[in-house]
Amino acid sequence: MIRLLDIFDELDKHYQQAQNNYNSSVRAMTISSVIFAIIFVVIIISGIVAFIRYNKRHKSISPSKLNEIFEEPEQKEEGPEFCEYCGAMLEKTDKVCPRCGANIKR
Ligand SMILES: [Zn+2]
What we know:
This protein has 106 residues and is mainly alpha-helical. Helix content is 71%, strand content 4%.
């Protein structure tokens, strides 16, 4: 009878030890997953911050620079010109209409 109790006691010890091991492994997993989550969040936040900084830098540059690059050449070449008297298409170098000879106002 005493032996049987001893065995039960031993089994209980083993059970508790196993549960402790399980708890500690669960805790270790939790800690490592928390660390991974923190690293993940830090990476995402730094990525977002870098993206926002990149966007801000490019937005602050783009309005003036894009105007310089794209809008001024467009204003200089306004597409095909036509004579206001006869409607003939004019070359940019023409000073008089090649068809009717009218002076071209520019
Ligand atoms: Zn003309």
